[in-house]
Amino acid sequence: MAIDVLNLYQRFSGFPGGRWLFTRVVCFRAPYFGSIRPLFIELRPGIARVSMKKRRSVQNHLGGVHALAMGNLCELAAGMMTEVTLPRRMRWIPRGMAIQYLGQARNSVVAEARLERREYNQKEDIVVDVEVMDQAGTRVVRAQITMYISPRN
Asked: What is the largest CA-CA distance in the chain?
């Protein structure tokens, strides 16, 4: 049985600390994402916003946020947004990622994943656009993540 992620997010986010707890549940199911200590800010069909604080464990040798930590954040935002956007009868898996590093992130960042809301009911590749902004609103990463979608068996 598939989990209704959107319903879970909506229920959790109504309580103090609920978004933090929801994020911990997601990272329990997909432990690798826990390495960046993300926090879901917004999750609804067509959009996800996920933040990551600048900490020593995600820094590069220049003192900024490591590029691959931001790539990890992009994949998390894109995947969860895809999950809540597709009909429950569909499944998805990342097939590829094209990522551009546009500048050094010197502070905490937020990834925003977007996908056109339309009918998804057949096997196909879809592209999720993700942007990562720093606290000043400067875009530091742009990614396009290809998701293969297909009906659940």
From this structure: 47
Alpha-carbon distances, residue 53 vs 47, 56, 63, 70, 129 (angstroms): 20, 10, 13, 11, 21
Prediction pTM value: 0.92
pLDDT < 50 regions, the chain: 1
Q: Give, as one character, the DSSP assignment of residue 51.
A: E
- Judged by DSSP in three states, 28 sits in helix
- For the chain, the distance separating the N- and C-terminal CA atoms, rounded to the nearest angstrom, is 11
Question: CB within 8 A of 75, min separation 6: which ones?
Answer: 94, 97, 145
Q: Are 139 and 102 in contact (CB under 8 A)?
A: yes
CA distances from 97 to 10, 34, 57, 68, 92 (A): 28, 20, 23, 12, 14
Residue with tokens 């598939």: 2
- Decide if domain 5-151 falls under CATH 3.10.129.10: yes
Give the pLDDT score at 55: 84
Q: Which of 70, 60, 84, 75 is nearest to 133 (CA)?
A: 70
